[in-house]
Amino acid sequence: MMQPGTPGTDCTFADGANVLRTNIEQIYGGYPSRDGCPLATGEITDIADGTMFIGLQRYANEYGSPYKLCFGPKSFLVISDPIQAKHILRDANSMYDKGILAEILKPIMGKGLIPADPVTWSVRRRAIVPAFHKAWLNHMVGLFGYCNQGLIDSLYEASAKNDAPAGQSGGKIEMEEKFCSVALDIIGLSVFNYEFGSVTKESPVIKAVYSALVEAEHRSMTPAPYWDLPLANELVPRLRKFNSDLQLLDGVLTDLINRAKSSRQVDDIEELEKRDYANVKDPSLLRFLVDMRGADIDNKQLRDDLMTMLIAGHETTAAVLTWALFELTKHPDKLAKVQNEIDTVIGDRTPTYDDIKSMQYLRLVVAETLRLYPEPPLLIRRCRTENVLPKGGGREATVIRGMDIFLSLYNLHHDERFWPEPNEFIPERWETKYVNPDVPEWAGYDPEKWMNTNLYPNEVASDFAYLPFGGGPRKCVGDEFATLEATVTLAMVLRRFKFEFDSSKLAESKVDIMKHPEDLEHPVGMRTGATIHTRKGLHMVIKKREM
Ligand code: HEM
Questions:
Q1: Which residues does the record give as heme binding sites (predicted)?
Q2: For the CA atoms of 38, 44, 50, 52, what is the dihedral angle to 10 degrees?
Q3: Does the N-terminal peptide bond of residue 447 adopt cis geometry, omega within 30 degrees of 0?
C-alpha cells in the first residue's frame, strides 16, 4: 500500500498522526534534534502581533537559515537562504507539498492549483498555463485599460471634493480599497467574463468574494482548524455566514461555467492561441479552458480553478499597487521620474502592450515594490520525504518527513548580502544591477553575468535571491498578467492624479513605535494576512494633476 506523503501519489500528506510524531521528535526527541537546526526562543508576541514576517526576520538575523520555531506541539523550519529556497522550490520540489496551506484552503479552493494534490495539479497546470499565451495577454492590456476607466472616474470624483484635512487641499480617498476593487473587476472579466463593477457599486456577490477572501486569510492565520469540528459550520455564526456567501459565489460560477459550456467551440491549443481576440465576444480564461480540445472537465474542477485564480490573482496585485503608490508618495523624485516616463510614452492614451515594454522605469518600480513587499511574504511547504537541505549560506540540515516549512521571501528580499540598503526603495538598483559586489561565492551568483544578460528581475536572473512569483514548477501562472496589470493601472492613475498622505490619518494608523520601530519607515503600518496590508488603509489626499 502507498504510504501517505509518498511522492507521486495523490495524497497531500494530511496524515495528522505522522505530522504530530515528527513534531514530538523535533521538540522532545532530544536537543539538538536530529535535523541539526537551532530552536529559536522568544516571546510569542514577537510573531503574534500581525507582522509575523518581521518577527521571523529578527530571528533569522540571530539564528541564520534554517532555524526551528515551535508553537506548542507544532514546529516549523524557517528558511531564509537562496540556495535552500532553490532546493525546496525547484530541485527537490516533488519532496514537498503545500501542507498546512492546502488543508486550510481546500474547503474554499477545492482542487484548484494551489491546494491540489500532485496528480490533479500536474493535469490542471498543463491545461491552465497555455491559457496565459501572448495574444491573450496582449488583449488583456486593453481590458485592464477598460476596467481602470471606472477607477479613474471615481478618482476624479474624489479629487473634486476638496474635503482634505486642515493644511492640505484636495479630496480624501482610501486607495488600498480602490486598488482592491479595480483588481477584482479585472480578475472577474479576464478570468470568467463577469462584470463585478466593484469600483462603482456594492453587491451581494462582491460581498461574498470579500467574505471568501477574509475567511481564507483568517484561516491561514488561525492555529487550530476549528471549522473542522463537528457542528462548527452550523453553530459558529462566522462560519454560517461564510458558507452561505460561498454558496452564493458557487451559484454564480456554476452559472458562468454552464453558459460557457453551452456555447462551446472545440479547438486545438494552437488554434486557440491564434484567436483574433479583437473579434471575440468572450475572451475569458474560462472560455479557453472550456474550448480546449480534450478538455471535458467537470464543473466542479472548473469551479475550483476559477475560485483559485480569483483569490490568488486579486489581493496580490492590489497589494503591489498599494505599496507602489505608498513608496512613490514617500519619494517624490522617483514619482517625478515615473510620471515623466508615462507622459512621454503614453500621455492620455490607454497603454498598449508595447507601451508597457517601453516604460522600463515604471516596470522597475513594480519589481522593487515586490522586493520590499513580497506577496505573500512567506511560502508554506511540508516535507513529504526526508531529504538533506544544502548548506548555501546557512547550515546543512536534515528535513524530516512531515516537517512544516516557512520559506521567507521577505527575508530573502531584505538580505544585505545581496541587496545593498535593503530597506530602501531604489528601483534604479535593477538598472545598474546595484547588487552587492561582494556577493558570497556560495550563492553561485555572478553580478557581472547578470549585468550583461539584461534580464528583467526574476528568480532565474538572481539565482533565487529574488522570488516575487516563487520559482520552480509551482511558480505563479499569472506573473506576466500581474506585472502588466500593475503597470497599466499605475500608468493610468499617476498620469492623472497627485497624491499626498492624509496627515489626519497617519497618527491614527501608527502603533506603539517602541514595539514597531519599522513603523517609522512605514507611516501607514504593516499587517500580514495572505499578503502584506496596511494597518488601517492607505489614506491619501488626491488632486487632479495639472498638465
Ligand atoms: C502562485 C505571487 C498574481 C495565480 C503564486 C506564488 C507566488 C505568487 C509567490 C507561488 C506560491 C508558492 O510557491 O507557494 C503572485 C503575485 C502576484 C500574483 C506577487 C501579483 C503581483 C497572480 C495572478 C494570478 C495568479 C494575477 C491569476 C490570474 C496563481 C496561481 C498560483 C500562484 C494559480 C499557484 C500555481 C501552482 O501552484 O501551480 N503567485 N501572484 N497569481 N499564482 Fe500568483
A1: 476
A2: 0
A3: no
Contact indicator for 114, 98 with CB cutoff of 8 Å: yes
Task: Tell me the mean pLDDT in the region 323-351.
Answer: 96
476 is in an annotated binding site: yes
For 459, phi then psi, to 5°, come to -70, -30
Query: Rounded mean pLDDT of the chain?
Result: 84
Instruction: Using the predicted structure, report yes or no on whether residue 12 has a pLDDT greater than 60.
Output: no
β-partners of residue 500 are 541
Is the pLDDT at 16 greater than 80, yes or no? no
Nearest to 369 by CA among 228, 166, 198, 538: 538
Q: What is the distance in A from the centroid of ligand 1 to the CA of 308?
A: 10
Residue type, 273: E
- pLDDT score of 354: 93
How far apart CA 177 and CA 157 sit, in angstroms, is 16
Question: 8-26 in b/e burial notation, b at 16+ Cβ within 10 A?
Answer: eeebbbbeeeebeebbebb
Q: Is 519 helix (H, G, I), strand (E, B) or coil?
A: helix
Residue in 147, 502, 538, 541 with CA at minimum distance from that of residue 324: 538
- State residue 3's pLDDT score: 31
In this prediction, the answer to ipTM > 0.95 reads: yes
Confidence check: pLDDT of 6 > 50: no
Distance, in Å, from the CA atom of 192 to the CA atom of 194, rounded to the nearest integer, reads: 6
State how far the Cα of 425 lies from the Cα of 325, in Å rounded to an integer: 12
Q: Pick from 74, 107, 99: which is nearest to 232 by CA? A: 107
Contacting residues for 258 by C-beta, under 8 A, at least 6 apart: 299
CA of 317 to the centre of ligand 1 (A): 10
Please state, for a pLDDT cut of 90, what percent of the chain lies above it: 49
Name all residues whose Cβ lies below 6 A of ligand 1. 113-114, 125, 308-309, 312-313, 316-317, 320, 370, 375, 379, 468-470, 474, 476-478, 481-482
Q: Which of 412, 476, 488 to mutate to test ligand 1, by most ligand atoms within 8 A of the CB atom? A: 476
Where does the pLDDT of residue 11 fall: very low under 50, low under 70, confident under 90, or very high at 90 and above?
very low
Q: Whose CA is nearest to atom 14 of ligand 1?
A: 379
From 228-242, 359-373, 423-437, the region with the lowest mean pLDDT: 423-437
Q: Which of 435, 402, 488 is nearest to 82 (CA)?
A: 435
